[in-house]
Amino acid sequence: MFTGLVEGTGVIAGIEDKGIDRRLRIEPHFQMGEVVTGESISISGACLTVVNRDGNGFVVDVSYETLSRTTLGSARVGRKVNIERALRIGDRLGGHIVLGHVDAVGMVKGRRDDGRSIRFDFEIPERFAKYVIEKGSIAIDGVSLTVNSVKGRIFDVNIIPHTAQITTIGLLRPGDEVNIEVDVIGKYVERLLAVRTDRESGGISEELLRKYGFL
Fold first, then answer.
1. Backbone conformation region of residue 74, classed left if phi is above 0, alpha if psi is from -120 to 50, else beta
2. What secondary structure does DSSP assign to 39-76, as a single string?
3. What is the DSSP string of 127-164?
4. How many whole angstroms separate alpha carbon 50 and alpha carbon 29?
5. CB atoms within 10 A of CB 135
6. How far apart are CA 3 and CA 91, in angstroms?
7. Which residues are 168's β-sheet partners?
8. If pLDDT is split at 50, 70 and 90, which confidence band does 12 have?
9. pLDDT tens-digit readout, 24-66
10. Residue 205: pLDDT above 90?
């Protein structure tokens, strides 16, 4: 589990095909401390497992499932990535609960200055748009962000100078693809309500939501 507070960036220094899977070598641009085999690390929002240390870097395996559902499938040597190590018991939860299980690949639709910040418009696939809510949390390339507003499949966020400087978000331009993980709490609520309404066979209504404390 992660918080979406990226520790720093790194670069994909090597790619090795393993059948339909891949092995990536990552070189961090900051001091990560000891990285051990078997630990989970978020690479631009995708939770991956370290399989080996390699000099100043480390090696991770990427399954075909992950390649097919994230931007890592089109990654090339030299690409800059966000890095976050897994949350430890007792750490501050400064962002929100991020699993590193990317839901979809989205696209940058707009970028503009907004005071000292950068305001980005992102487009998310239709099936995941319902999980994006105004002032809710969302992870973009592993970065925990707050949604400003939502209109259909488009939502916008503000990136403060610090975030733009220490993550890859500041490098994004219209047309770029990003990894998106929606807030897991919304998905669990939807699933629990679906199971309950199946039993009650009444469908989701305002009365039902009010009955169970959602309104």
1. alpha
2. -EEEETTEEEEEEEEETTEEEEEE-HHHHHHSGGGG--
3. HHHTT--TT-EEEETTEEEEEEEEETTEEEEEE-HHHH
4. 17
5. 9
6. 10
7. none
8. very high
9. 999 999 999 889 999 999 999 999 999 999 888 999 999 999 9
10. no
* Residue whose token pair is 């990654």: 75
Q: Select from 44, 49, 54 the least CA-distant residue to 14.
A: 54
Can you tell me the distance from the alpha carbon of 50 to that of 100, in angstroms, rounded to the nearest whole number? Answer: 14
Contact 69, 102 (CB under 8 A): yes
Give the per-residue pLDDT at 163.
96
Ordered domains of the chain (ranges, CATH): 8-85 (2.40.30.20), 104-187 (2.40.30.20)
3 state DSSP class of 201: coil
Residue with tokens 């169970």: 212
Helix (H) or strand (E) holding 199: helix 184-200
H or E segment to which residue 196 belongs: helix 184-200
Asked if residue 130 lies in contact with residue 85, where contact means CB atoms within 8 angstroms, the answer is no
Quickly state the pLDDT bin for 141 (edges 50, 70, 90).
very high
Backbone angles phi, psi at 201, to 5 degrees: 50, 40
